[in-house]
Write a structure and sequence with these properties.
The structure is a single chain. The protein has 468 residues and is an alpha/beta fold. Helices cover 40% and strands 22% of the residues. The strands form three sheets. The chain has an eight-stranded mixed β-sheet, sandwiched between helices. Helix 3 packs antiparallel against helix 4, helix 4 runs antiparallel to helix 5 and helix 10 packs across helix 11. The protein is globular, with a radius of gyration of 24 Å. The relative contact order is 0.10. The N terminus is likely disordered.
């Protein structure tokens, strides 16, 4: 294995992202402060809202929209949580200044809740405004706690409308990031993640789930950072979910593609879009634990392993399996393309395209919430073939799970998919479909949700240790 070549970075600087659990309590913030104080060079620190606060803000906004007035009892709780941090961690000479800033935001938030309660409605843009207060307040707190320069992400992260949501305007955002942060840094900088503004209207928007990770990646890519660190509450990427498989262990090194695949199929360590900006700049990602900072963590980069091996196994439950049977399925390329395109055209995300184990057919796995719509679209797409008799049936089965076996170039491990299927079948677990060969780095096995935990244990035990 070789380390990736150095890029054209002229100034070595890292971006550090701390998630909600890392800024959730006085004790976790003490850990964060100690980590930052141990830096030898200034860094940019991106923070999420206090742990659990975003969910609380959403729930309170919805309560306000119902007109029940419960937001009036929630506001003192939210205020008290921020005051506790101010009193415990901010020096006496800055305490009043910081409390004044937090009070200003809390009063504004209370006004927003009152307005929602009066109109008894919660437009999407108003909800975006509500959840923005979490990062706006946490970034003020953390900048004061660690003595860093404060930068407001609302000043430089821009989004554009995409269907019914918002996505980052990468080009404009990167231009604004380079203007916002002057290199070389003379002091640590703290900024909030997740929140943004619409490039046309200036209204507050957000980058969606995992948006703080993505903000950090955008900053790292725009500034050609040497490293992106994601500080969380686990020691790194594990070979599988330790809550299900007790033998799961840390993966010390992995490739960008491996990390993306594991996250796409259920691993919650990194939000998948986070990886794209830094991947294209060849900026490594390090996963580290705020509560165990001495742990070596996991390094994600453009490594090249000398031999293919399974790096990890992910589990995604709550999916549905769609099947198309008939003589038309002999033409694999045609039926796969038609089935995939029919769903994609209608906004349905396809998770896996493969083959059922006991039939000659097309198998497509989609999120269960989309199963009814997906079934109807396939009936429409293959309607003429059904009438001609070349397609005999279109079916759907809900309550399915995907077990994704991931490793660079594992397609080169001869017969890996069929061996894993045989192991499961011998243990009485019915494998409904297999995708083996469509991807260079992932084999997907579809089983019932009810069998998912046991199947994950068996696949992990076999795949991580299986002879090559």
């Amino acid at each position: 294995m070789q380390n990736p070549p150095k890029g054209s970075t002229k100034y070595c600087m890292k971006v550090m992202k701390f998630g909600g659990t890392s800024v959730g309590t006085v004790d976790s913030l003490k850990n964060l402060k100690q980590i930052v104080e141990g830096l030898t060079e200034p860094a940019i620190i991106v923070v999420s809202a206090l742990g659990g606060l975003t969910d609380r803000l959403i729930a309170t906004a919805r309560d306000a929209a119902s007109g029940n007035g419960l937001y009036k009892t929630e506001m003192p709780v939210i205020r008290g949580r921020h005051y506790e941090i101010i009193d415990a961690l901010i020096s006496a000479d800055r305490r009043e200044e910081v409390r004044t800033k937090i009070d200003g935001l809390l009063n504004e938030l209370n006004d927003v809740f009152r307005g929602i309660s009066l109109i008894r409605a919660l437009p999407e843009r108003t909800l975006d405004l509500v959840v923005s207060f979490g990062e706006r307040m946490s970034s003020i707190l953390v900048s004061a706690i660690v003595g860093a320069d404060f930068h407001d992400s609302l000043e430089y992260v821009r989004t554009e409308q995409w269907f019914t949501g918002s996505i980052a305007d990468r080009k404009l955002t990167e231009e604004l990031i380079r203007k916002e942060f002057s290199l070389p840094l003379t002091n640590n900088a703290v900024t909030g993640g997740f929140i943004s503004r619409d490039r046309e209207t200036g209204e507050i928007t957000n980058l969606g789930r995992g948006g703080s990770d993505y903000t950090a990646a955008l900053i790292a890519a725009a500034l050609d950072a040497e490293l992106l660190e994601i500080w969380t509450d686990v020691d790194g990427f594990l070979t599988t979910d330790p809550r299900v498989v007790s033998s799961a262990h840390i993966i010390p090194e992995m490739t960008f593609v491996e990390s993306m695949e594991l996250c796409n199929f259920g691993a919650k360590v990194v939000y998948p879009p986070t990886i794209y900006p830094v991947f294209h700049k060849n900026i490594p990602i390090k996963i580290l634990n705020t509560f165990n900072p001495s742990a070596p963590g996991t390094l994600i980069s453009d490594f090249h392993f000398s031999t293919p091996e399974v790096r990890g196994v992910s589990l995604m439950k709550g999916t549905a399996l769609l099947t198309v049977e008939g003589s038309l399925t002999i033409n694999v390329a045609q039926i796969n393309t038609r089935g995939y395109n029919a769903l994609a055209r209608n906004g349905i995300g396809v998770l896996v395209v493969g083959e059922p184990i006991r039939h000659t057919a097309l198998a497509i796995v989609v999120p269960q919430k989309d199963s009814t719509k997906a079934f109807r679209e396939l009936e429409v797409e293959f309607g003429p073939d059904i009438r001609q008799g070349t397609v005999t049936s279109v079916g759907v089965a809900e309550g399915m799970a995907i077990i994704a076996v991931v490793g660079e170039s594992i397609k080169k491990i001869a017969g890996l998919g069929s061996r894993l299927v045989n192991i499961l079948e011998r243990k009485g677990i019915s494998v409904e479909a297999l995708s083996d060969g469509a991807s260079e780095s992932t084999i997907a096995i579809v089983v019932s949700d009810n069998d998912a935990a046991e199947a994950l244990k068996l696949v992990h035990e076999a795949a991580i240790q299986m002879p090559r």
